[in-house]
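Morning run. Coffee first, then this:
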Amino acid sequence: MQPATPRVHYAFIILALIVLGVMSALGLGRFGYSIVLPTMQDSLKLTNTQAGELQTWNLVGYSFAVAVAGFLAARYSTRVVISFSAFIVALSILATGFAPGFDLLRWMRALTGLGAGGVNVPAMGLVPAWFSAKRRGLASGIAVSGSSFGLMVSGPLAPYLIAQNGPDQGWRASWFAFGALALVIAILATLFLRDRPADIGAHPFGEDAPTMNAKPQAASALDWGRVYKSPALWHLSLIYFCFGLAYTIYYTFFVRYLVKEGNFTQLDAGALWFQVGVGTVVSGFIWGTVSDRFGRRAALVSVFTLHTISFLMFGLIQTIPGFYISAFLFSITAWSIPAIMTAVCGDRFGAQLAPAAFGFITVLFGVGQAIGPVLAGAIADATGSFALAFVIAGVFALIGAGGSLLIRAPKA
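And here it is:
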């Protein structure tokens, strides 16, 4: 009697773990900062520049991690890198809740970013290993939805905890709740992640039969050189830099702007943040599918154009309808660019080198992210408003759209 064939391909278990890992590293560790910021800033009497600097420290840690995480994952074990990094995220988030002031906060934010980079880049690099090329864009789109679930959790949870515990302790309770959830996710990743289908005698989902039953050999020095010297990789890096700088301004000060300048209550701003999270669930799914069908370039140009409109509206049209339209446009496109970039790296450099290629372009992406918050905070302190910062975000999104037009399809 033949053993029953499992109905669920293990690739979907891997994908679920990637979603949870991204939720912890980015959805809670990074985007959770946005919903907690107004109360935390008031409680600790932080300037706008300091508020931006805290997020910049998080992104500096992230950038440092992604510089090596892709290489370590491709060279050694993706599972080990992700699991270890997930515990760093969880413990540093918990420690953030105990921080007495700015000095310790910036180190905890940096440590959270360090762990996030060690989770996100290798996790996204698992997609080309577990899914065939014809399924890769869709799978990548689902993977990045983890950030959406982080918004959906933090949006209503943080205002509730702040209301229950008061402004001085509520933001701390929020970080404790985020950290506890991140700890559970780290344990699940340690137990169930696998590096590649061959490890369990399977094959990538979407392929009819196994194409590689043995562990692939380590990439040669020549392979690495071809990746890092590729003009296409540098082109993608510059486009990703524009995205990093633009969208990090938008999400970091989204709630802060609505509460302090848009006449929203913390609860109303949290509700809109939740709605953004709901919309972003489908953003990677939609645009990953578009990129599979119509090409990566067309998808990138479309998303960057919608980001341009969203960011400019947020800064220039300071009305309730303007805020909601801007939030809607962002929500349906938010995580699509990382998903498409993941697919592009898999298309150009193959499953084995995709984590290193994605890690490399994420370095410049991280530089853009690190610049964005502190730049926006300094602009707000100088002008008394974040409006100009959102306009600058729109300009960089427009540059990203222009750069995406110049992407060429990979040669066979």
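The mean pLDDT is 84. Good start to the day.
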